[in-house]
Amino acid sequence: MTHHTPAWQDIGSVEDLSRAELQQVTVGRTRVALACKDGVFSALSGVCNHAGGPLGQGRLEGDYVVCPWHHWKFHCRTGEGEPGFEEDRVPVYPVKVEGGRVYVDVAGGTPRHKKPHAPHPLTQLTVRGGPGGVQADAPWRVVGISTTNMDTSHPRYSTSDALLVSALERARSKGAETRHIRLAELSFRACEGYYSKSAHACSWPCSITQMDPTDQMERVYEAFVQWGDVFIVATPIRWGQASSLYYKMVERMNCIQNQETIANRVLLRNKVVGFIVTGGQDNVQAVVGQMMTFFGELGCQFPQFPFIAHSRGWSAEDMERNVAVVKNSAGLHEGAAALVDRCLATAESLVGHDICPARPVRGGRKAHTLDGTDSSGE
């Protein structure tokens, strides 16, 4: 049996350290979460088992330290996870108080133990014709995403969704499998800004998806990352912008883009995206520009003429006529069908071609620091 000789290190005065219930301190090169509950100090690892979050920057909830990143909990004295997750343990360190000073022995910490967790289904990446994917000659899979926001219990005509329906009908007529995802029918939480705590706190799958099994954004993630080949994203124009539901969706999809910038890992390969934009006021290019920028940064491809659009313009405050125009315009519905044709042709051309390496060259892309410069360099 090996006996450990304590190596006590002075981390500060009792007076100073007792002012906070929980704080992150560094002892040598070890990050420590120091808790002070009912005047008694305890120390545990400052690194969470889940994604390495800084436990000492979280909060004390009863006897449990709550990680600020994704809210995993560990007992402040035993290091054990909350009830039901006791097997997840972080190290705890001996603490003593002498002469008004607090000492910690980080060399005497208990072992860390991570309970095995089954990987989330979304971690399985698939590529058509590749491992885990459908055969290269399997029917194409086309996903329509409607971002118009309306009361689903009182449905009414949506010009963007109506054109999307025509696009999906065209896809089916060409032998494709289709899905129609109406965001208004899904219950999903808005992005809660884990990225703002740390870039590494924005995880894949999304932290909310991992924590909340009722969050239906998982359907969108699964469609993009695993199921679909072609995506048609339809939005109305709202005050010169895409719909609020569109932005709610893409803010949550930032976790896909963040994998590229932080982990240098491309989740979407050979995916083709087209857009349908309609509205009562004109700002088509700006709306499409944002959409193309976002999906381009996800690694998606675009066909020639990647969008169709319709707008009544600034001076025509007659939305009832806008609806009638779209309903009765054979040209607009033919345009939606042609958009799908171009997207499918683009998808076809990508089969067997690896246009981007698994780890693309980073120079000039988001979150890349050039050699010889720092974050403040130009």
Describe the model:
It is a single chain. The model has no long low-confidence stretch (mean pLDDT 90). The chain is of the alpha/beta class and 378 residues long. The protein is built from 10 helices and 15 strands. Helix 2 packs across helix 10 (330-350).
Kindly list the characteristics that best describe this protein:
10 helices, 20% strand, 4-stranded antiparallel beta sheet, 27% helix, alpha/beta, 5-stranded parallel beta sheet
* Sequence stretches where pLDDT stays below 50 over 5 or more residues: none
Work out the strand percent.
15-25%
CA(first)-CA(last) distance:
58 Å
Percent of residues in helices comes to 25-40%
Order of helices and strands: EHEEEEEEEEEEHEHHHEHHEHEHH
**Helix run count:** 10
| pLDDT averaged residue by residue | 90
Structural classification: alpha/beta
| Rg computed from alpha carbons, rounded to a whole number of angstroms | 26 Å
Largest sheet: 5 strands, parallel
Shape: elongated
The largest sheet has its strands arranged as 12-11-13-14-15
Number of strands: 15
Blueprint of the fold:
Elements: E1 9-13, H1 14-17, E2 22-27, E3 30-37, E4 40-45, E5 59-61, E6 64-66, E7 73-75, E8 92-93, E9 95-98, E10 101-104, E11 141-146, H2 159-173, E12 177-182, H3 194-197, H4 207-211, H5 217-227, E13 230-236, H6 244-252, H7 254-263, E14 272-279, H8 284-297, E15 307-311, H9 319-328, H10 330-350
Parallel strand pairs: 11-12, 11-13, 13-14, 14-15
Antiparallel strand pairs: 1-10, 2-3, 3-4, 4-8, 5-6, 6-7, 9-10
Helix pairs in contact: 2-10
